[in-house]
Here is the input.
Amino acid sequence: MQIKGRSISRGIGRGEVLLCKEAISFLGDIDPKTGICVAPKHAIEGKCIAGKVLVFPQGRGSTVGSYVILQLAKNNKAPAAMVNLEAEPIIAVGAIISKIPMVDKLEKDPLTFLKDGQKVKVDGEKGTLSFD
Amino acid sequence: MELTKIQQKMLDGESGEAVAQSMEILVALGKIYGADGMVPVSSAQIAGVSYKTIGQAGLEYLSDLAGKKAKVRIPTFLNPAGMDRDQWQKMGVPADFAKKQIEVLDAFSSMGITMSCTCTPYYIGIRPKVGEHVAWAESSAVSFCNSVLGARTNREGGPSALAAAICGFTPNFGYHLDEKRKCGLLVDVRVPLKTNADFGALGAWAGPLAKHRNPAFIGISKNVSGQLEDRLKALGAAMAASGSVALFNIKGITPEYNVAEDAEKVVFGSEELIASKKSLNSADSPPQLIAIGCPHASLDEIKEVAEKVKGKKMAHKLWVCTARETKKKADKAGYTAIIEAAGGLVVADTCMVVCPLKEAGFGCTATNSGKAGKYLASLQNQKVVYGDVEDILCK
Here is the structure.
């Protein structure tokens, strides 16, 4: 099944879905060395985003967050792809400079129809998300 | 969003990896904000220069980009860094910080960017004309550019301004368009404003009220102490720091005065002025540092400080922060020597908001800037003494 959205950052990424219903500030919320969410009481506190298809509403907080995404990529702890409900500049810029495929504005709300651990493919060129 | 053939080729990588990545950033931002295409820009000003702000993550990004042989195509200038390149030891900046800061500046320099390190490019000859499109990032420079000069820029981020510098254009949305330049809040100023501290207090008050709207002002007189431009700079800087104002109009003063018919009207009188100044003060002890020059001081503002401290010996440390180009003029005019004789420093390239103030040993700072008043408390963990130059020099 394939769902159409909008292309934000190019490339193709595959992995298991990690759903997060809360906005993420990569500066502060995510440890760039481990990829683990260290923000107390955050929706994905204690979970590791490395290699996942990270699905979350959007970014928030400091614009330095874009650079933290790049650090994650250099440490091999970045997500395989990212899906936002509606992208904003911090995450979009972070994805592009880190070469992480990213889409947003899917025709169906990914936070309700996707499940944690489900295997999906994100095509950042076509702006699609697909799964078996 | 429509791209020209040339822009599409840049996106596809014909001009190299750094240009392709920069184009990808501009296209993504254009999509997010609903731009119809790109608009050429005549200059760029890059924020995210201080190592204190961008840290190791930012340094790695800039080093990567420099490694991809990125070069800017338009005149491009830098925001203040975390230290004076010559006098960092006198400021008390730690050596390991200085090493990292120099690496950041070297990365920018290799891309062909001018090492201006200032939030006031308009004091060193970079003055886009009415209606000219640019891509500036520092919030007070953006406000001055849109409001006082009547040129057009969005509030760029570090990477987006750099992408615009590398490509020569920016997505056409926001303040590049006429419809976003209308004012939806009208402030009736019913108290005479003279000094930077007065204008900063008005800005700190109006910024949060403006929310997503551009504010317009009536009742502001051209009859201020010193130069009117310096006062407008202080107003815009405080509104950008306390809210997110990128454009304001003043009746009879700014090149544009365009107020929506349904604009909300509010009054700023002497009570509001006193209350706003009070709210910027958080100190119960004398300052350890008096910091003037946020945004960077003009030659006239440096002269004012020199006249006030001439022949005196300051009880506290004193920094007057300015652009290196402006400092050269102050050196020539003898103002720097007067301020140094009083125990102060004329600091170039940096300011009290972006240098490592705590690490340099300061916990309480006095300022006449509404912007610094906000950020010293929130970003630098300082107790703040707020007042006119005259008052804070005598504390």
About this structure: The first helix of chain A runs from residue 26 to 29. The longest strand of chain A covers residues 12-19. Chain A is about 20% helix and 25% strand.
